[in-house]
Amino acid sequence: MILYIAGTTYSRTEEQPDPPAGIHGLIVCAEPDIWMVNLIPRIAQHIVDPGPTFITHHNILDRDAPKEFSSLEFGKEIEFFRGHHATPLEAQSLDGQLCEVSEFKHESYRIVLFVRADTHKPFHLDVFRDDKAFVSIRYLSYQTELPFDPALFKPPAGVTIMEAKPSNTK
Length: 170
Hints:
With about 170 residues, this protein is mainly β. Helix content is about 5%, strand content about 45%.
């Protein structure tokens, strides 16, 4: 997965293609507009966020996780660990990369963040639930402060876009 985040209202998630399933997912968000695209048939669904807030979130854990983890998001990992006063652990080398390591425990969850010692950017994140590996994320690249590219936050050209039907939220 490749994730682009710009501010609180722009997001682009590029999934890996799954040709046997006929899916190559792309989600583009420029609040309040959201496009869910399948790049194989080149079809998109356009959704308008009804608000009242227009903020994108990039949660690492699903909604079943304790509320304590609701602010654990891609792009905000270090802030989460600092804000939750995570316990620093001994520095470790992970796949030849020297990392500063910290962990945070809450209920049945233990989360361990490995931050590159040279760049101070996330390198790896492990989530354990009930002392069993639950999620493991390797950051192949973690770039910040890039120039804003508005083209990233528009649906790709040549895609047929269908409007989503408004949901009844009465």
